[in-house]
User: What shape does this take?
Amino acid sequence: MLGVRIRALFGRSRAIVLVELVVLAVVAAGVAAVVWWPDDQPKPAAKASPPAPLALPGAPDATAPVLMPGAPGEPARTLQANEMSPLPRRSHNNADIRFVTMMIPHHEQALVMARLVADRGQNPQLKIIADRILAAQEPEIKMLETWLTDRGLDRNSGGRHQHSMAGMQSAEALARLTAARGADFDRMFVTMMIEHHQGAVDMAAEVLAIGVDGIINEMASSVIAEQTAEINRMREALGAAK
Assistant: This one.
């Protein structure tokens, strides 16, 4: 009997040892898998539950669908917010085109008037102002024509203007100016050119308000500054001559 019990105990101890060896083998395999995991493969990690989004009062819903109108005769489409792409900013608009196509003939008339000063006027300060007008507005006309050409436009691209160009002088007024001489010419020139310059200033202010082209914006700002200064110079020149 004693021998049978010893053999039974010996058999149970061996079974326990075998179980422990199996457990150790499993643990060792897990450690080896972690140690020898390839560098270029992502290692498994415990997943944490994402935090709940903050509820901001009044914040717009960035995921709300957007209703896009279809072409004439076609139904509207519904797009998700992440499917929308921002519209490209327009490089120019109708206000820019209208300004350019009106300013070219406006400048050309100023050149016609300024060229009369050398032979008909007697005030030397007005002759200097006329030279400045010629030096400034001839290059500006070329720049405006280039602006149109670069965009596939021409002088007729502005269409029919709803109002006449501000400050433009009639053919009859130009004829009277051409026939005048001396002090009469100087007074007539200053009156007409101030009105002409003021018209350009008004047109420039309009395109600054509703135009979008950066080049035209800069030119309009220059027109306002330069021609306002010339208006003051002409008034001073005429007043000093009296």
